[in-house]
Design brief:
The protein has 205 residues and is an alpha+beta fold. It contains four helices and ten strands, in the order H-E-E-E-E-E-E-H-E-E-H-H-E-E. A hairpin with a 3-residue loop joins strand 7 (137-144) and strand 8 (148-153).
Length: 205
């Protein structure tokens, strides 16, 4: 009997049904990979925030997603609920630097060789723009494959089309914004970039 998934020559018969199933499975796998990578990057940043807090350099925290519980999920004692988002997305991290200046930034990871401007949503861009106008230190913290890390000033990210001629950033274009890791493996996103001359805030040492 001929396998319904194969044609007469024995090759996979990519009928619309099976093609759609393959695309759906690939999307799920990609979604899981992206979720894991995002969580790993956030853990690195949160560890760095703990370090800066311990050094009295800054107090920065991950912004919790505003959610409204609807009903318990499973056993009530497990503390799990079915919930919905009640507000538009906020910036990933916010806090204050020693000296009083506020800080706000987005954290974005990519496994590609470039990162698209669309990685920052319109709402997140609006918030960063407003915060910067009010004097906050704003930027986008980017991980490329967990190999190199960059602190992109918000004004550079916002105007990348005018600066670089396209709405994405490649590593070779932004070398001056690369940041390093200290001996503890902490992301030094508040210190001078490898090719730059200033800290995230001029008053930060």
């Amino acid at each position: 009997m001929t396998d319904s998934r194969k044609n007469a020559e024995g090759y996979k018969d990519m009928t619309p049904y099976w093609a759609e199933k393959n695309v759906e499975n690939e999307r799920r796998q990609q979604g899981r990979r992206s979720k894991y990578a995002g969580e790993r990057f956030e853990n690195m940043i949160s560890g760095s925030c703990d370090y800066y807090r311990g050094q009295n350099i800054a107090d920065i925290e991950k912004t919790p997603e505003p959610m409204k519980p609807l009903k318990p999920y499973g056993e009530r004692r497990r503390g799990q609920y079915i919930a919905i988002f009640v507000k538009k997305a906020q910036n990933d991290y916010k806090g204050i630097l020693n000296g009083g200046r506020c800080i706000a930034f987005e954290a974005k990871h990519t496994d590609a060789d470039k990162i698209e401007a669309s990685a920052v949503s319109d709402r997140q861009a609006e918030l960063l723009e407003n915060y910067e106008k009010m004097g906050a230190s704003c930027f986008v913290l980017v991980s490329f494959k967990f190999e190199q890390f960059y602190r992109i000033p918000w004004s550079v990210w916002r105007d990348m089309k005018d600066i670089y001629g396209h709405k994405h950033l490649k590593r070779r274009e932004i070398s001056q914004y690369e940041i390093g890791l200290n001996h503890l493996g902490t992301l030094e996103f508040l210190k001078k970039t490898k090719g730059g001359t200033q800290n995230a805030d001029e008053g930060t040492k």
